Structures are given as structure tokens and as C-alpha cells.
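Hi Y.,

Following your request, here is the sequence exactly as I used it, all 516 residues.
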Amino acid sequence: MSAPVWSVDPRTGNRREQVATEATAAEVDETVRAAHAAAPALAERAQRARLLRAAADLFDQHVDKVVECADAETALGPGRLSGELTRTTYQLRAFADIAEAGDFLDVRIDHADASLAPPRPDLRRWKVPLGVVAVYSASNFPLAFSVPGGDTASALAAGCPVVVKAHPDHPGTSELSAALLHRAAEEAGLPQEVVSVIHGFDAGVELVRHPVVAAAGFTGSVRGGRALFDAAAARPRPIPFHGELGSLNPVVVSAAAAGERAEEIGAGLAGSMTLGVGQFCTKPGLVLVPAGEAGDRLVTSLTAAVSDTEPGVMLDPRMREAFIAGVRERAELDGVDSPVTPGANGEHTVSGGFLTVDADRLAAGGTYDLLVEECFGPVAVIVRYEDVEQISAVLARVPGNLTATAHLGAAEAAGSGDAGDAADGGAARLLAELTPLAGRILVDGWPTGVAVAPAQHHGGPYPATTSTSTSVGGTAIERWLRPVTYQNAPQALLPAELREDNPAGVPRTVDGTRES
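Below is the corresponding structure, written out as C-alpha cells. Let me know if you'd prefer a different format.
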């Protein structure tokens, strides 16, 4: 008999209601094969656009209901969740526009040319959908990175049916989202099976192993993501696995920046690291601050701001216990201090705080490598450095990240800082050191908050992600496509997008010249 799936209130730990049952292996198989059978219905790009816009409209019409359900399961608060839903519907409409425009097809036509050596045949290249996409929902974003989120929207825009493995922290929200997506499919004249939702840990493993699944997208922990990544690679026919796993998001505050605005930076750091109870994948978790008076002022400002932050409820008790244990283990390291101790605060809440350590200890590695691993929750490690060499030594210990940030002085930001000054090391040199570490490099800002835009990149070197792709922005669609070239194919047999007269009206590059 299938196990029940309960919606749980994280503020009390009490069960709210049973919303589903965990899918059996047979049910996973049936769901995936139904999705595969629905794939031809997504052949027309205009149809995909109608589906995505209908979904956005339905979520807009049910804002109160969706936000209420998500808040009851995540304790993220109506304000945060309303903003997340706005982001989600914007994302759906953005991918509708992308599907309609057709730029993502990257159509390239090279006409036959017998004068070349060797002679060139007629070649016509575009991109086609991979097939059924498995999506693994994130715990900390019940909308934008879950059932109606960016993975789902981009896959549908690419023409791929989606089977979502719901996160156990918000199963009710997942079911509600699935119902709205099914209604959108009906309104767009598509079968409901273009989007499906399943529940259960074992079902998630069955999903990534299913022979019909062609690709997967994941947002979650390093441990869980790596297990699924390995399973995807171990299949008889391995598939692309686009996983976002973990990120420390290092920040370097130059001596000049600390001297000019220590209090502002300290307060900004407190807001960013405790936002959403520290449960953002882009939370700044490692911050290099100069030793000396200016750095001390920054730490004093951070202390005051973090101390004024209200305790919060984490997404579930398991995460709360992992956070408490992780902080305790780090704080017990020799030379690690805790000016504001993060950890348990009440039966269900936690309070934010930070740890400090000298740069030379962290650069030494060994047991201190624990400090360059993500600790999910409202905590950051402040590393006090003396000179440029210590900055470089610490950054050399840092694994791949989604983001890396530099806070610079006014002269440094203008490109007129002293590159030989041991206090800052030169802004250009610093950005050059940060670039290999992350997919997004920020200057004088905070990484929490990821704009949905064509130029956005939300990804980074492992363990931040398992591929070089982005999960945010228009180019996220590229994960679900593969290129195909037709050679000397008769016009009547070509897809409309590749025919000479371009009846589909898509942008193309023809004989090296971009047309629109």
C-alpha cells in the first residue's frame, strides 16, 4: 500500500492534511509514459506559448489561495511568497515569449557551395526538444523553483513534457500548482499529461532511472543531488542532469571599502545572510573582512544588525537540526569565535549569527575545510585577513559557487585604486581571482536575489551546479534541446523553420549573416 503524503505546518510540526500518496514504481512508469505520449501535442511553439500564458493567468487569479497554502507549509511569509509568485508568473510569460519568437532554435543555414575545398553540401541546423524532463523541486522556493518554476517553464517552452517530483516540504502547494497547470493545459487545448507531479523519495529515484526520461533538473542539497546525478550517469543510456547543489557565495570586502562604508556593509550583510532565515542558495556564507579598525567597525555593525533580526522558522525540523549541528561543529574548531551565536531559539525557531576566524587558519585547510562548506541557514563565516596573499590563499580553498562578490572602495571601483596596495590587491586582480569560482560576479551588492533576465546566469563550477548551464533566464531553455543538422534534405521534407522561404518567421543565420 502506498505511503500517505502529509502537509505539515513547520511552525508547529503538526500535520495539516494528507494531500497525496507516494507513487509506486508502476505509477512512475505510467506517468512518464503518459508524458511521453503527450509530447507531440507540444510540437507547435504557439501552443506552448498559450499554455505558459494560461498558466501565468491562472496563478495570478489564485494568488491568495496559492500564497496561503505555501505559507502554511513553508513559514516563508505572505510577503516573500507573493513576491515569489510574481516572479513565477513573470517567468512563465517570459518563456512564452521565447517559445513564440524562436531565437532559441539557433537556426543556421549554409547553402551548398561547390567552389569550396572540399565542396560544401547544403546544411541546415536547428535544435529539437530532448523529450520527457524530470524536475526535482526545491525546498526553499515552493513556486519559482518547484512545480510551476523555471525548470518546468523552460522545458515546456522547449517542447518537452515534464514530470515533477514534488518536494516533501510543500506537497499541498505542489498539488495546487499541478491543478492550475492542468487547467492551463486544457485551456490551451493540450492534454494534462504535458505536466505531471509525483511524490516520494523512491519515486524520485525511479524517475531519474526511467528509460524514457531524457533529462533532469534538480535544485537541492549536494548529497541528494550528487546521488541523482550519479544515477543519471549510471543508466544504460546516460542523460543530462542539470543540478544546483550547494554554494558558499564568497564575499571579499576590500580595506578601502571597509574604510569608506563599514557600517553600511555590515548592515547589508546581516540582511542578506538572514533573508528567508538564511535559506537562499545565494546566501553569502563566507566573507573576507580586513583586520584592523575599519574591519572591526564592520563586524560591530554586523553584530548589531544580526542581533536585531527576529528568530525564524526553518522549512522543516530536519533542516533545523542540520543547521544547529553544523554551527556547533564549526564553532568548536580551534580559533573560531562566535560574536553572535546562531542556533536554536525556542522549540521551532532559530536565530541568526556569525562565526569569525583568522585567514591563516582557514588557508591551512585540514579540519578548517569545514568552514568552506555550505551551512544552510542564517549563519556566515567572517574571515579576517591581513594582506593580498591571505585573500588569495583563502580563495584557493573555496570550491565552485553560484556567486562571488567584491565590495570595493570608490577609487577601486573607478579603476584608479593602487593595485600594489596590500590592503586591497587591486580591483582587477580581485575580480580575476573571483571569476573562476562562480557563475555570477557582483560588485558592491549582495547575491540574494536573482533577476530573471536574458543576460542572467544562475550556475557555477561544481558543486554549485553539475553543468555549465543556467537555471534562470532565457538561456535556461538550452538545457532541454539538442542540435540536429539536415544535409541536402528536400525542401518539402524540412521543418518550416529550415525551409528557404522561412514560413515560420524565425530569426536565422544564413551563410554567416544574421537575418531576422
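The first strand starts at residue 4 and ends at 9.

Thanks again,
Q.
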